Amino acid sequence: MHFEDVIKGRRSIRRYRDKDIPRSLVGEILDLAKHTPSSGNLQNWKVIVVKDSEMRQQLAQASMEQYWMVEAPIHLVICNDYDKVKDHYPVLGKMYSIQNCAAFAYNITLSAHTFGLGSCWIGAFDNEKVQRLLSIPDNIDPEIIITLGYSEDSKSPQLRDEVKYITYQEKWGAKFKVPKSELEQIESGIKKEVSKFKKKLKTIKKRK
Fold first, then answer.
1. Contact in structure between 80 and 23 (CB atoms under 8 Å)
2. Tens-place pLDDT, residues 134-174
3. Which of 43, 76, 110, 131 is the most buried (most CB within 10 A)?
4. 3-149 belongs to which CATH class?
5. CB 133 within 8 A of CB 55
């Protein structure tokens, strides 16, 4: 699978087939994701793999009662070991630690897609309840839950804003002009020539 296909093909999946995921495959997905960059290469992420159906039910309830989550045979709970970061970055360490976990979580979703699995990023949940359910220590924060499974959803990827609408050049507000592709340049050239021809045609008609 080409990298472009991975990026464009990944989407949030909320319907899953009733099919088990081998533990070895979960390990391969995490083994790819572990190469995520992090502040100071501190790698402050930890992962809890949840397969138990009753626990998945409770996690879904703690996630604003999003019970579709239970269909996913695996929940990955991404946790933040902030202690690994705060001594190196005493002022902005908390923010960096969350950014690191977010980057790691995103790479998990990409990695899962390369192995033919669907996933969904869950950020809305009761942190304290999840902490209690999974016996997570007080100094460790659950940041993200990722559902994992074989997709039963055939929806198309969501439309994204064009680069020109989200990018500035050198400073805020200055337009970033994206060079046209070769095909776009040809199309633009044809349109200009057609426009010129129409103008000439009008001029000729007026003379008559």
1. no
2. 999 999 999 999 999 999 987 677 788 988 899 999 999 99
3. 76
4. alpha beta
5. yes
Separation of CA 71 from chain center: 20
Residue pair 10/113 in contact by the 8 Å Cβ criterion? yes
CA 86-131-51 angle, to 5 degrees, is 115
Delimit the domains of the chain by residue range: 3-149, 163-207
Report DSSP state, residue 47.
E
Q: Are the C-beta atoms of residues 17 and 152 closer than 8 Å to each other?
A: yes
pLDDT tens for each residue of 93-116:
999 999 999 999 999 999 999 999
Question: Bridge-partner residues for 46, per DSSP?
Answer: 79
Q: How far apart are the first and last CA of the chain?
A: 61
Q: Encoding tokens for residue 168?
A: 């500035």
Main-chain dihedrals φ then ψ at residue 144, nearest 5 degrees: -145, 145
Q: Residue 154 has which token pair?
A: 């055939």
* Cβ within 8 Å of residue 82, ≥6 positions away: 44, 93, 94, 97, 139, 140, 141
Of the pLDDT bands very low, low, confident and very high (cuts 50, 70, 90), residue 183 is low
Residues 6+ apart with CB under 8 A from 97: 39, 44, 80, 81, 82, 84, 85, 86
Q: How many C-beta neighbours within 10 Å does residue 86 have? A: 15
Of 10, 16, 17, 14, nearest in space to 157 by CA: 10
